[in-house]
Write a structure and sequence with these properties.
By secondary structure, the protein is mainly alpha-helical. It contains nine helices and no strands.
Length: about 220
């Protein structure tokens, strides 16, 4: 006998199957917001392309490799995008788009290498969120993602820009850039994401709903 209860039971797996992919499916609003974040971050990259020159001249003579402390402002886009969008590919997309904007407007590193750096840095952050199955977006995870972006970007820089560097420079640079990535790209992006959510601007995202729940 085919009852309403059996109909509900038979439909349950199918409903679950339809809901599961939705958590990772990009919506139009995800694409729009990630794109806005990427473009805005790219403009910040452009400002830092100039702003970092002063601190760089002070740090380099102190200890070769210490300039890695200045890398964080070029790494935050991917972490911020992932914290808000919370979908696979968000970190990679946002960081790469920011690099594309920086490359198109122009900088001293060349267009292709800037975009390549964005891809590598975005991938470094993306892998951290993947390790947590895109379910954890806490401060420690954000900090790890910033460090991941920095480590990937730092190794890339050592290969392309500091080829032949000695062990001392390599160690100092990697430690410096990872610290910068963890603090600036990771922790500060987490604070910024929560601040944006508190304004109500992100109410269509999980982070916005979490902010309302805390009030």
């Amino acid at each position: 006998m085919h009852t309403a209860a059996s109909t509900r039971t038979s439909n349950a797996p199918a409903d679950h199957g339809r809901r599961s992919p939705g958590r990772f499916r990009w919506r139009v609003v995800d694409i729009v917001v990630a794109s806005v974040l990427g473009v805005a971050s790219g403009l910040i990259f452009l400002l830092w392309n100039i702003g970092y020159l002063g601190p760089k001249t002070l740090l380099e003579p102190l200890l070769p490799g210490l300039q890695g402390l200045l890398d964080g402002p070029w790494l935050f886009a991917g972490v911020l995008g992932a914290l808000i969008i919370r979908k696979p590919g968000a970190a990679l997309y946002t960081e790469t788009l920011a690099a594309v904007v920086s490359a198109l407007v122009g900088n001293t590193w060349g267009g292709f290498l800037t975009i390549e750096a964005g891809l590598v840095q975005g991938l470094g952050a993306e892998l951290i969120f993947l390790l947590f199955f895109y379910k954890r977006f806490s401060l420690p995870v954000a900090t790890l993602a910033g460090a991941g972006a920095a480590l990937a970007g730092g190794i890339n820089n050592l290969v392309l820009w500091y080829a032949g560097a000695d062990a001392a420079f390599t160690g100092v640079y990697l430690v410096s850039t990872v610290v910068s990535g963890a603090v600036i790209a990771g922790a500060l992006s987490w604070v910024l994401a929560r601040g944006l959510a508190a304004t109500g601007a992100l109410d269509r995202f999980a982070i916005g709903r979490e902010a309302r729940a805390r009030v």
